Amino acid sequence: MDKTVKLVFQDGLEIEGKSFGAYTSAAGEVVFNTALVGYNESLTDPSYKGQIMVMTAPMIGNYGVPDDKAMINEIEAWMESNQIQVTGLVVSYYADDYSHWNAIQKLGVWLESQNIPGIYGVDTRMITKKLREQGSTLGKIVADTDVAYYDPNEDNLVDQVSCKEVIRYNEGADIKIVLIDCGVKNNIIRCFVNRDVEVIRVPWDYDYSTLEYDGLFISNGPGDPALCVPTINNIKESLKGDKPIFGICLGNQLVSLAAGASTFKLKYGHRSHNQPVQLVGTKRCFITSQNHGFAVDDSKLPEGFKTFFTNLNDGTCEGIRHESKPIFTVQFHPEAMGGPVDTEYLFDEFIEEVKKYKNANA
Ligand SMILES: NC(=O)CC[C@H](N)C(=O)O
Fold first, then answer.
1. Predicted local distance difference test score (pLDDT) of residue 167
2. Record-annotated residues binding L-glutamine (predicted)?
3. Domain 155-358 belongs to what topology?
4. Which residues of the chain are in CATH 3.40.50.880 domains?
């Protein structure tokens, strides 16, 4: 700690700060997250793979880090995956001392144990304004040796974070869903298991057509959705059938692409716990947790689909739904972790549809 390190942007701006976590250099896409809490969950969210996360909350680390090895029902009890996924962390004030009932270690010690660099003592407001004006940009944390810039959106990150074989949770439950793991957050699995669903978690490019299941779920995940060609092709086949389909974040983008819509990169993305969305056709607004850089272009949705939710900050599409079939997807995170749970009811609506399908086909 306390050694000098630099945050360097591709446009040449260099900002000096102090090191915490691993004293090492790392490159990625610099993105900002305005959530006030939830750094343990965000750092382990596989959708952040390849990104350097700037947290705008002024103090980070003060509630420590829980046991990242503790397991409940075969998944990490407190984390969203089995490792830190970001490439680097940028904060204003780093609190080395912590106090929280489930914390067992300092944030800096945890980052160091996984060789992830952090930089503190920098003006995160200035950085955020810069990213808002210029858009997300490549950058690097430079410690002792320089590294090349790295654009995660050119890599197949989904292949890196997806499971490598089929994993079943809550085996034997009446309702079975196939979950395409593009980098799934653990709380999505918890949300299904807590509702007594068997989850058949399959790799991102797995041909699940021969499995026995009642509904299909497509997870969140990192990078550019257009790179997930095998997943898009599998979903295309599923769209021809009658089984209910639900997708979250990358899952929303992949179902949209499979249906024939297109996606584009947002200027600086949505990463926070207070994104307002409107349920289209109503005056209902929900506050949602979000973490994405791409979005679906709903100005020309394929026939049979309509916009499900709209973002009230910038008007972008926050999900699509089919007009007659039980297919709906959302760009935000109903499973939260961290963030508000206002939209967790969508899991119940999906499972209701899956039950209806199962009963009709019994
Ligand atoms: N959280 C996610 O699933 C992110 C989806 C996609 N990688 C994006 O940035 O838009």
1. 98
2. 47, 221, 223, 250, 253, 291, 293-294
3. Rossmann fold (3.40.50)
4. 155-358
Distance, CA of 37 to CA of 54 (rounded, Å): 13
The H or E element spanning position 181 is: strand 175-181
ipTM: 0.98
Write down the pLDDT at residue 2.
Answer: 82
Q: How far apart are CA 121 and CA 127, in angstroms?
A: 12
Distance CA 259, CA 235 (A): 8
Tell me the pLDDT tens digit for each residue of 125-153.
999 999 999 998 999 999 999 999 999 99
Residues in the annotated binding site for L-glutamine: 47, 221, 223, 250, 253, 291, 293-294
Task: Evaluate whether 269 touches 136 at the Cβ level (below 8 Å).
Answer: yes
Residue ranges matching CATH 3.50.30.20 in the chain: 2-152
The model carries a pTM of 0.98
The CATH code for residues 2-152 is 3.50.30.20
Q: Using most ligand atoms within 8 A of CB, pick from 49, 218, 250, 316 the residue to mutate for ligand 1.
A: 250
Q: How far apart are CA 77 and CA 325, in angstroms?
A: 35
Instruction: Return d(Cα 304, Cα 287) in angstroms, integer.
Output: 27
List residues bridging with 90 in a β-sheet: 54, 119
Q: Which residues of the chain have pLDDT under 70?
A: none
CA distance 224 to 5: 30
